[in-house]
Write a structure and sequence with these properties.
twelve-stranded parallel β-sheet; alpha/beta; elongated; Leucine-rich repeat, LRR (right-handed beta-alpha superhelix)
């Protein structure tokens, strides 16, 4: 559904006749919606008392803090909502609007699945914007995108406050690429994530955030405390990670005792062949890893030490699926042949892809 605000009256009147709605999907993308329009959407939502599943797409409009606050108020009567997905990226709601929206959503205490896409909203948070999340006692899955929001390390310190009280959280996705959280920010975020004691699935996108070897080490040291974690997708692409950082990262991640699937994206860093081989030597010590995807595109890898990188692969005896990306390095065809030959030692491997 794509309407401008003049059509909201018709939409509202039509939906008002449907008092038993449990699933509602509304799309107003690039519709020039402002704060008045979003207030009318809030009224539409508030009138659906039995609603359990809401999908709201309102990206690329002109919504400010006022509109976000009004939208939050629309959730106060939707206490049966269990699944909420809101895409409000490319607006102007900023940190105050984000906080007001989430505070309003706090009335939906039965929510189990929550997705918030807040990309490109000039949030620049230095406050606890997620405090209202603490009311979501039944929350199991939460995906939060704050891409391109000028977050710095100070904002990262408070970013996940309130989420620690969601003791049932099992799956968490945090997408904060293209900000400037630096080493201290990555430390604070991973410290907060390590407190989610029932977390089994984690997706963490930290690419392009000026993170160095110190930050990389902190990420590994904090995430190893997530003892129930089975799935980890971690991106540190396009930061300032060298071979020391990759070694320390591997040392931390291999201590996640129940980890079975690891997607690790380290492309566009100066890791080199030696750093990559040291990373593998640590990760190979994890005896439960079954699926491993490793991104090393444009990592300054050369023929020197590449044979050692290949050698380390034979130690991943529990792997059933392996994917490695080596594009834009200085590896010859002969080197790739050596790599593939090492895989013969992996008796359980049934799927392999080399890019």
């Amino acid at each position: 559904m794509k309407q401008n605000h003049e059509g909201f009256g018709i939409v509202r009147d039509s939906l008002f006749q449907l008092q038993n709605l449990k699933v509602l999907s509304l799309g107003f993308v690039k519709s020039q919606i402002g704060d008045i329009g979003i207030s009318k959407i809030a009224v539409i939502i508030s009138e659906q008392k039995l609603l359990s599943d809401l999908n709201l797409k309102i990206q690329n409009n002109q919504i400010t803090e006022v509109g976000a606050q009004n939208l939050g108020q629309g959730f106060q009567h939707c206490k049966n909502l269990q699944n909420i997905k809101i895409e409000i990226c490319n607006n102007l709601i900023k940190s105050q609007g984000t906080q007001e929206l989430i505070n309003g959503m706090g009335f939906c205490q039965n929510t189990e699945y929550l997705t918030l896409d807040l990309r490109n909203n000039d949030i620049r948070s230095q406050r606890s914007i997620l405090q209202g999340i603490s009311n979501f006692k039944n929350l199991k899955v939460f995906n939060l995108s704050l891409v391109n929001n000028y977050l710095n390390q100070d904002g990262a310190c408070f970013l996940l406050d309130g989420l620690q009280q969601c003791s049932n959280l099992q799956t968490f996705g945090l997408f904060i690429r293209n900000n400037n959280i630096e080493d201290n920010g990555s430390l604070e975020i991973c410290q907060q994530i390590s407190q989610f004691k029932n977390l089994t699935h984690l997706t963490l996108e930290l690419q392009n955030n000026s993170i160095t070897d110190d930050g990389c080490q902190s990420v590994g040291e904090k995430l190893k405390k997530c003892e129930k974690l089975k799935y980890l997708s971690l991106s540190l692409q396009n930061n300032d990670v060298n071979e020391i950082g990759s070694l320390q990262l591997g040392r931390g991640l291999r201590q996640i005792v129940n980890l079975e699937e690891l997607i690790l994206e380290l492309s566009d860093n100066q890791i080199g062949s030696q750093g990559a081989s040291q990373l593998l030597s640590e990760l190979a010590l994890n005896q439960k890893l079954k699926i491993f995807n490793l991104g090393l595109r444009n990592c300054y890898m050369e023929e020197d030490h590449f044979d050692r990188f290949c050698y380390q692969l034979k130690h991943f005896q529990t792997l059933i699926s392996l994917e490695i990306e080596l594009q834009e390095n200085f590896i010859s065809e002969e080197g790739e042949i050596i790599l593939i030959s090492r895989l013969k030692k992996l008796k359980r491997l049934v799927q392999f892809q080399l890019k």
